[in-house]
Design a protein that fits this description.
four-stranded parallel beta sheet; 8 helices; alpha/beta; Rossmann fold
Amino acid sequence: MTKIGMLTIGQSPRDDIIPPLKEILGADHEILEAGALDDVTSEEIEEIEFRPDDYLLISRLRDGAEVKIHKRFILPHLQKRILELEEKGATLTVIMCTGKFPPFQSRGLVVTPQEILKGVLEATLKNGKLAVVYPSEEQTHKAEGDFGRDGVTIYADHLSPYEGKDDLEQLAERLKEQDPTLILLNCFGYSSKVKTIVAERTGKPVIHSNVVVARVLKELAN
């Protein structure tokens, strides 16, 4: 049985993310969960200092609270967890975040989802408007650099995966007004409900990041 490491940039367990991924992967794989912030206290998180040029990341703590961190802080914690997961037998590890990450030291495969998603987008959308939904408004300025290219216009919006239905309905209306060709839910924290409502309200195809990555993991693990 293949052991797959699922590494969140927040704290584990992630009962909001893991079950639907398990459904796609099937029963033939053992999931090993870990979180980059598993051994970081709330006091340490509160003391994180941000610089204007920091690469902002959004995740969830064990108690369900949203947390904002930056890549400078999180990278050594991710590296530590990857090695720990491999010590437990993981031969394939996925960073459950769509942000941009450097290569990690590892014995097995480490999947960073942004490259997968960019490949899917470039293969499907040659010309048109791409709407990218981030978990925080503070991240939307990255959309052009992350996904912009010749022939593709970028519209960036935001929705916290951990907020209420009203915000989701408002997002869906804004996306409908923009009339994009394709919509990317650019966060692992978005539920299938978010995809369903956005797709129904806009009538447009929606890429659900964690589902796409899970299908790639299934292929790699078989």
